[in-house]
Amino acid sequence: MADDDTGSLVTAAAAGDKVAWQALVERFSAMVWSIARAYRLSRADAADVSQTTWLRLAENISKINNPERVGAWLATAVRRECLQNIRANARTVPTEDMALFDDVGADPNPVEAEVLRAESERENARRARIVWQALGRLPARCQQLLRVLMASPPPSYAEVAAALDLPVGSIGPTRARCLQRLRQELGVVSGIA
Amino acid sequence: MTNQPDDRTVEEEIRRAAARLDPVPPELMQAATDAFAFRDLDAELAELVFDSLLDADSATLVRSSGDRRMVSFKTAELTIDIEVSRTGSDRQVMGQIMPPGPATVEIRHRNGVSTVDADELGRFSSAELRAGPLSLRLRQAGQPGPVVVTDWVAI
Lengths: 193, 155
Description:
Shape of chain A: globular
Mean pLDDT of chain B: 88
Helix content of chain B: 10-25%
Structural class of chain A: mainly alpha
Radius of gyration of chain B: 20 Å
Structural class of chain B: alpha+beta
Low-confidence stretches of chain B: none
Order of helices and strands of chain B: HHEHHEEEEEEEEEE
Oligomer: heterodimer
Radius of gyration of chain A: 18 Å
C-alpha cells in the first residue's frame, strides 16, 4: 500500500496525532501479523513480535526517512524481529515444526458460533477451511508468500519484498505460480467463485 | 500465463479465509494502539546497534553459547549493553551503562514499569520478567541533558 496519504499519516502521527496513528494501525496491522505468521511463529510469539514492531515504530516515527514507505519499514522491522525470535527459540527449545495452515480445528472467532446458524455463513466457513487446507498442501515457499499477500488490505510488492527479503521483481511471477498451484489443489476453477 | 481475474478471485478467497481462520488478535490491535502512548518526546533515543542473535558472526555465537543474548544501544554520549538470559518463559536482564556511573533505570515491560538503580560502575539487573517487548528509560545521576530511552526489543 503506497497510498498518497500514508506519508501524511506518518507525518501527522510524528507530530502527536493519535487519530493518524490509529489509521496507521488499522492500515498495517494485518500486514504485520501476516508476516509474523508467515514465518511460522506461534500466535503468542507473533503477537510479541507484532507488538514490539508497533512500539518500535512509535518510538522511531519522527525519524522515518521516507514516510510514504512506512509499510516497507514495518515489513523490514517485523522480519528482523521474526529472525530474532526464531534464533532465540532454536537455542532453547527443540523447534516444533509449526504448520502454517493446519490449524483448522477451532474457529477462533467466538461470535462465529452465533453466526454459523445462518446457512450461507456455514457454507462460507466450510469453504474457508477447504481453502486453508489446500494452502497447507502447497510448497513452503508458496505458503509463506501467500500468507503475506493475503493480509487485508493487501500489501504492496515492495512491502512483500521487504518482509521476505526477496527481489521485488520475483514477487509477481512467484505469486502467479503459487496461485496456479492453489487452483490445482482446489480442483476446478469454476468451483471457486 | 494465468489470467488476472482468476488470480484476484482466488486471492480474495484466501484473504477471506485468513480473516476468518487466522485473524489479528483483538488484544494485539489494542496493544498497537497503546504503543503510541509509550512515546517519550523529551527523551533521547538510544538506537539498537547490536543484537547477538542477528549480528554476531558464527565465531562469536560459539563463544556466547548457552542462553545468553547480548544487545547494545547507543546515543552520542552513552552505550547501554544488556545481557538477556532465558529460563523457560522467564527472562532476566543484566545491564551495563558506559561511561559508568550511578543511574536510575526504568524497565518498561509487559509486567509494567519497574525501577532499579545502576551502581557506581553502571551495572544494573532486573527481576524475573515475562517474555515480551522491553525498553529501558534512564537518567545518569548528576548528568544534565535529556532522559535516554532505548529502542524496543522482544526478549
